[in-house]
Every structure is written in C-alpha cells, then in structure tokens.
Amino acid sequence: MKLHELTIKKANELLKKKEITAQELTEDILNRIDECESKIGAYVTIDKEGALKSAKSTDEKADFTDPLAGIPMSAKDNICTKNLKTTCCSRMLENFVPPYDATVISKLRERNAIILGKTNMDEFAIGSSTQTSFFHTTQNPWDLSRVPGGSSGGSAAAVASDECIYALGSDTGGSVRQPASYCGVVGLKPTYGRVSRFGVASLAATMDTIGPITKNVTDCAIVLSAIAGQDSFDPTSSDIPVDNYLQKLKNDVKGLKIGIPKELLYHEAVSKDVKDAVLNAIKVYEDLGCICEEISLKNAEYAMSAYLVTLAAEASSELGQYDGIRYGYRTSSDYQDLKDFYKKTRGEGFGFDVKWHIILGTYLSDEKYYDKYYLKAQKIRTIIKKDFDEAFKKYDFLITPTTPTTAFKIGESSDDPFKMHMNDLCVSIVNLAGLPAISLPCGFSKGLPVGLQIIGKAFDEAGILQVAYAFEQNNDYHTRRIKERMV
Amino acid sequence: MKYESVIGLEVHVELFTKTKIFCGCSTEFAADPNTHCCPICLGMPGALPLMNKSVVEFATKAGLALNCQIADFSRFDRKNYFYPDLPKAYQISQFYIPLARNGYVEIEPNGQKKRVGIRIMHMEEDAGKLVHEEGGSYSHLDLNRAGMPLIEIVSEPDMRSAEEAWLYLNNLRTILQYIEVSDCKIEEGSMRCDINISLRPEGSEQLGTRVEVKNLGSLRAVRRAIEFEEKRQRDILENGGTIDGETRRWDEAQGITIFMRGKGSNRYSPEPNLSPIIISDEWKEDIRNHIPELPNVKKERFIKEYGLPEYDASIITASKILANFYEETVKYYHDPKIISNWIMVELMNVLNETGEGIKDLKFTPKQLADMLIMIDKGIISGKIAKDVFREMFKTGKNPEEIVKEKNLIQISDEAELENIAKKVIENNPKSVEDYKNGKEKAMSFLVGQIMKETKGKANPQMVNSILTRLLKEI
Questions:
Q1: Nearest-5° angle of CA A119, CA A120, CA A126?
Q2: Which residue of A has its CA nearest to B24?
Q3: What are the BP-aspect GO terms (chain B) (predicted)?
C-alpha cells in the first residue's frame, strides 16, 4: 500500500511503530499532489515548506499518542491560517494573509497535525460545484469532466484523490456533505455550535458549521474529537460536553429506529439510481436489526425557499466587510466618490454568484421587505425544526439521499442558480434545523459514487457516527475509491 | 402665527469600561492611531464578537439611574450600511429589543419642575474615526475607537426650547458622571448629541416634519444649533414653505446648519453571533444597590441638612467631586454657609482662572476648614485668608505653614497697633482735619494707611476701634 492511501488510523499505527516517519508520509503526499494536481486542481495554496518543517519537528518530538500527530491534512480556503494565504477563492482576498489561526486550526496545530495547504472552493462558499472559485475549477477524481461538488469541492477531491489524509470543509447548506457524496468520501456536518466558527469567514452565521471530510467513518470520529468543543472565542459554541466518538463506534445497531422522510427520498429530483442505492442501504439496516419506517417531514417543500432567503440575507450582511478599505482587493480604476469606490471595488472583486446573492439578500432584508421575506423564512425555519423534533420523538435517526443525483458535468446548469440549489434539497434542510448529519458512500451509479445521509438529534454526533460505522462495516464502497477513480 | 418647537435629543455616551464592547482591546483615550485594534475591531474574516459583561453592567446602571425599565431579555441587531470607518459594514446595536425604556430626567426651566421622557436606552459599538488630510486628496483611518462601548439615550420630544435641551443635557451628564459610567466629555467625543427638531403652530397637538442635526461638539453648539433651526424653520413656514425631513450638520465656524443627506431607510437584522442579554432580578438589584445618591436627591438634602440656599446647593451638587469635598469640609468646620461662600467665590474663581478641575485639587477639606478656623480665631484676617487660600490651591501646603512662612499672622497687639495708628495720624494731618470736618471717607483712608503699614496684617476691628478712640481724643 502506498503511504498516501493510508487512513488516519493506519498511518498513526505505523508512525507509532516507527515504521514510517511523518516526513516520509508528508513527502509522499506532496509527491502525490504533484502527480494529481494538474488533473484535479484541488488546492489553491500548497505550503510544501511549512508542511515539511512541521513534519520534521513532529518527528523530533516522536510523540504519536495523539492520532492526528504527523498526519498531513488540508483545509478549505475560508478557514484562516496564520501567515498562510486565506483567499475564500475570491479576487477580493486574493492576497490576504491572516495574522491569526481559526480555532479549528489552532486545535489541530496543538496536536501536531501537518497542514499541507488550502483547498479550492466556491467563492466565499456560495455554490454547489466549486466552479465559482476565482482561481480554477476542481475536477471530480472519479470523472474529470464532472464537478467535485461544492462548496468544499477542493477538500472532498483532495481526500478522494489521496492528496491529503483528511480535510476540513465548511457546511452552510450542505457544503461538506454534498461534495463528500459526489467524491465518494465521508463528510460530517456537526450540530450548530459543536465546532468553533472563530476564524472561519462567515457566509450565513446562523447556519455555518465546520466539519471533517475523511476516507472512512473512523477517521471522521477522530477528527471530530479533535476539533469539537466550546471555544471562548465563539459565543455560539456550545458548552455541552464532547462525547468520546471513537469509543462509541460499534457494529451494534440492533433495535434502533430509523425514519425515512418520504418527501425527500421520493422527491422528483431524486434519480432512480440514487433512490435504489438508498433503499438498498435501508435494507442493510433492516438486516442489522433496525426498524426502518417511512415518515413525513411535512413542510420540507418550503425548506429550499427558506434556506435561500436566509442564506442570501445573511450573506449580504456578512460579505459587507469586504469593502477594500482595510485589506483585500481595491479597485485600481479611478472613482468619483465613496459610492463609486464601493461599486467598483465590490463590482470587480466579487464574482457573479456572490453578487447575485448579495443583491438578492440586500433586497430581502431591506426594512420594507424584512417581514415579508426574511421574517417569514425564519418562521418556516421554526416550523421545520418542530417537524424534526416530532420525528425524533419516535425515531433515533433519519436517512435520506445526500444528493438527488450523482456529480454533474462541469458547466452544466451553472447558469441557473435555482436549479443548482436543488442539489442541496436534502442537505440544506438540516442546516436550517442546526442538526448533525453525515454523508457516506452507499453505492454507485454509472461509476459515480452515491451518498447516504444520516441525520441525528442535536449533539448526537456519536450516534450518527455509530450508525454510519455499522453500514460501512457491511460494504466496501468506501474502499473502491482507490481502485476505480481516474487518477 | 406663533410656533412652538418640539425637540428630542439622541445622546451617545461612551462608557468607560476598561476594554471594548466586543473584544479585549483597551479603551484608553488618545492612544496612537490603530494601536488598540485586533481582528475583531478590524472586521477581519472569521472574527466574532465577544460580549463584555461590564458593558451590560454599566449600561444597566445608567438605565436605572435614568429611571428606565430594564428589559430582562434584550438582544443585539445589526445596522447594515457602508462607510469607511465602519469595519464590518454593519454596526452591532440594539434595535428590536433594547436594554431599557420609559425613563426620565428631571429639569427645572424657570424654577418649574419638568420631566423629559427617555424613550429608549440601548447599547452599541462605536465606529472608527476618519481623519481628513487638510487640503489633501486622501483620508486617514483610525480604528482605535471602533468597538468602544456606547449607550444611546433617545429622549421623547418633550423639550420646547434650547434652554430646556441645555438643562436636559446638563442633568443627563451630571447623572452619568455621578454613577461613574462615563466622563461625558463632549469635547473629547465621549458624549455626542444629535438634535431632532420640528416646529408646529402653538396649541397644535400634531407634530411637524422633523429635521435631524448631527455633529454637535459642545453644549453651547447644541443651544446655538437649536436656536438656528428654530429660526430657519420658522422663516420657511412663515413664507408658506414646507420643511423637508432631512439630516443636517452643524457648522460651528459659520454658526449654521448645513444639508447633509435626505432620509433613507436602514437595514436591520438580528446579530447571530451574540447570545441574548438576560438580566436576572438579583443582578439588577445588585447594580441598583451600587448606584450612589443622585444629584437631585443630594441637592435637596444639602438644602435641608446644611441650610444652603437652593442656588448654592445646585452648584455644589452639580459635580460629585465638589459635593464630596464640600461635605467633607462640613465635618471639620461648624458653619456650612461660610464653606459654601468660599467654594462658590474663591474656589470657583481660581478654577476658572487656571482652567483646572476639582479633581486636581491639591489641598484637602481639612486644610480648608483649618484656614476658616484661623480666621475665626483672629490669627489671619479674611483678606489675608484669600492669599492663604490661593497659596493652598497652588501648593497644597497647610494654612498654618503658609501663614508662618509668609509671616501673615494678624497683628492684634493693642499697644503695637496704637503706635502705628499714632504715627499715621501724625503723618496725615490733612485727613485728620477732613475727618473732624465730618468727611467719613477720611477714616477709611487712615485705616488703609495702617493696613499698608502692616502689610494687611492688622486686625481690622481693632484698627477701627483704636483709630476712632484716638481721633476723638484729638
């Protein structure tokens, strides 16, 4: 087996046994990056020097009791890294170097994780395809003519092509789970408040979460253990104690009650192959002794609209700070006055999709329309939360497809933002409710991975990891990645 | 037609907590530009606000002192707009559910008690400061002020004249200084005032179109700006025109208000990164218990307890430090009115002359009392005491020490004074003659000569009686 193909757990075992060094592992992955990048384009910044330096110092410490020590990883480019460019894949921040680390990065550094670089994404995390990046489009490792999903497409593609052992993404409306599904890897969106958002460029502050993208469920549990927990720098982070996620990974799911929201599984946007793969997964759970029943999330049809309104309104406020005054892109053409300066700077600095959302959001949150749109969206959100509460009174978990279809072709449907958003049908509803959910491979359709989404109760990450683990133990979808992908 | 002014004020007050409202940066005044800044003040990617608990405490204290109802539950909102000194392109403020409502401040225009209502008092962050290059084509940006904690106090439109607005502001400032939540220095920007003013025909209940005047840099400017607007609006109305709802600014140099911008709509949205502010009854009571005696209560007490005239009491209680100084002095000297006289005349004079504040006083209440006792004992004359007082003010030395050093002890020796008086009579036969001819003025001249001879140290009562006796004998 090649070193870059290792999981966190395997690599840690080898490091502990001194069969490999962190430097060897890092070098191997850097070589792998060299080999793949021209085809995949998962990264926007690669920090070879920094990675090798920290690998060396980790080897010197020779302490691999922490499972993440010496393990090379990458982070989505909206997660701030001290002295390392963080661009949000926007012209606006093309040369921005933060003077601070995001909390998730500090936590990983404390554990001697090796940071390889920053991964490509949709500009400011708006998008479902990684095609709106200012730099380049990332290709799906399973089919280079297809998107990796988005907005954490770079992170998912990097994991899927072994250009890192694991990665961090951000999930505001499915941006960790959807690309994980398209790329055949595991992606977890934690409960809102479980992982600190400090140092992560905000998109929609009431829905943003940071989550791991990994090669399997065990690795996912390891990374979540490292980054979860209350942070004094994030007032919205929760003080609920963090579970021991690894310890709870057991094969035994007998007697668990699983609900299948029929509005999502049987939605017209869901393709036959995807539906079949999910039905098959349900069969697996039934064989393991779970009780699976169809249920109704009766207001699911309003979720997409509520999500879009919330996203646009919040994004328009969050993205105001990029104004060319203190840092970032500033127009180089002449301007008449202050208003003209803002117009030119923001007009030139932001890409189309970002501007589309800002303008929509500005309109929706204007005093005149606030009640009509924004407030109404929040009311729908409350109703949807209630629907989930009701469902979780009877069921331990809910299962849906992660995405209605497999990865689409680069260039396809990107001119229609509404159609693009249908990819997020099953995932964004979870962000509205703030719940935890995981996506893991559950089958293939014409050679492309299909993702299964497991949704849990608030702060029951341990539960969804366990249920995901049980499924993973009973198939080989997660390992086919290595055999069948294009590079 | 006669018009009546309807005036409401929006006052921003900087709270003097040690750190900013949403980060740990220092609030120190006049630091070098951009030295008290962090990613949170600068609105950098991923920076999140952290609530400073002392700001809530200070603001609650202010709300209670202004007789407001404090909300058990309040929340922060964003006011979204673009301006170079606003780092995040939104100001974190309270809009939908403010911290305090329905308070009042008492004023006494023309001796009549009147309440000016406070509609809302809420917390918010300050913006940075733009410093425009004189004659240059660019501006400097100082973000030290960004994130300074403010309270905004919005009054009801209860004021009817510049005088009432002035009284309201003055009382508001005194109260906030008393409870030590702010120094309220208008000149340093720690208290800022916007005026809302409209005119309506006298007797009408309907409100006229309101004009907002921003950028008032002093209490005097507030007064002048109101008077200017009253005249401007009256002129327009009398000429059959209509008032536009607009925002104007005050130009101190020209003494006029200038059009700034029309009325636009604001975009508010809930601030998602901060938890709601929840104030328990216990906490509120604890804060209430830390509110000291407020100026109006103190004033009434001074009148009752020390028998001071209302005028004296209101001047002395206008400053907490002065009131404390006064009360301390009363402990060491028996006559409160005499103390008040010295404070109102001599102390106010030297403070005005030197521009120093009461908080910088070098001498203690005990020293002032000792000086007054020296007058009573005849050790120094009242006139000499004024010099001693100035020396105390300058150096903070004990009055005994000053008197001794400068040899200022009053001459009360009968024989010595008689000798001096005899010499003066001898040297001024013309004046003696005038006196004998009934010219009372001549007497004062002779007294003055004796004082001159003794460098003012002669006991004036004794000089009078000795001189009267001697002149009779001639």
A1: 125
A2: A233
A3: glutaminyl-tRNAGln biosynthesis via transamidation; translation
Does the residue A257 lie in any domain?
Answer: no
Q: Rounded mean pLDDT of B83-108?
A: 96
A69 located within any domain: yes
Residue partners of A198: CB distance under 8 A and separation at least 6: A102, A103, A231, A233, A234, B46, B47, B48
pLDDT given at position A140: 97
Residue at A82 is within a domain: yes
Taking alpha carbons only, the member of A158, A165, A141 closest to residue A223 is A165
Express each pLDDT in B274-291 by its tens digit. Answer: 999 999 999 999 999 999
Q: What is the DSSP string of A279-330?
A: HHHHHHHHHTT-EEEEE--TTGGGHHHHHHHHHHHHHHHHGGG-SSSSSS--
The parts of chain A modelled with pLDDT lower than 70 are 1, 413-420, 482
Q: In 3D, which of A162, A116, A124, A156 has the Cα closest to residue A140? A: A156
| Exposed e or buried b per residue across B176-190, where buried means at least 16 C-beta atoms within 10 angstroms of its C-beta | bbbbebbebebeeeb
Do residues B460 and B384 lie in contact, with contact meaning Cβ atoms separated by under 8 Å? no
Give pLDDT tens digits for B4-57. Answer: 999 999 999 999 999 999 999 999 988 999 999 999 999 999 999 999 999 999
Residue A154's CATH number? 3.90.1300.10
Both tokens of residue B202?
């006298």
Say how many C-beta atoms besides its own lie within 10 A of residue B236's C-beta: 14
Strand pairing of B246-251 and B256-262? antiparallel
Cβ contact, residue pair B48, A80, below 8 Å: no
Cα(B151)–Cα(B54) distance, integer angstroms: 13
Q: Domains (ranges, CATH) in chain B?
A: 8-200+261-283 (no CATH), 293-406 (no CATH), 414-473 (1.10.10.410)
pLDDT on residue A57? 97
Could A197 and B48 be called an inter-chain contact, meaning their C-beta atoms sit closer than 8 Å?
yes
Query: In percent, how much of chain B has pLDDT > 90?
Result: 70
Element (H, E) at B3: strand B3-14
Domain of A129? 8-251
Q: Does B82 touch chain A (CB under 8 A)?
A: yes
ipTM: 0.93
Q: Which of A54, A76, A189, A196 is catalytic?
A: A76
Query: How far apart are alpha carbons A344 and A357 in whole angstroms?
Result: 17
Helices (H), B307-362: 310-317, 320-332, 336-342, 348-354
> Nearest Cβ partner of A235 from B42, B84, B275?
B275
In a domain, A93, yes or no: yes
If one compares B269 and B409, the residue with the highest pLDDT of the two is: B269
Model pLDDT, residue B316:
94
Question: Would you call B227 helix, strand, or coil by DSSP?
Answer: helix
Please give the model's pTM, rounded to 2 decimal places. 0.89
Q: Distance of alpha carbon B32 from its chain centroid, rounded?
A: 27
The pLDDT of residue B251: 92
Cα separation of A266 and B164, whole Å? 70
Mutate which of B139, B269, B274, B277 to test chain A, going by most A C-beta atoms within 10 A?
A: B269
Which among A206, A362, A374 has CB closest to B272?
Answer: A206
For A184, A307, A390, the CA distances from A377, given in Å and listed in that order, are 33, 7, 20
Number of domains in chain A: 1
Known catalytic residue: A368?
A: no
Q: How far apart are CA A187 and CA A157, in angstroms?
A: 12
Q: What is the pLDDT of residues B322-367, one digit of tens each?
A: 999 999 999 999 999 999 999 999 999 999 898 888 888 999 999 9
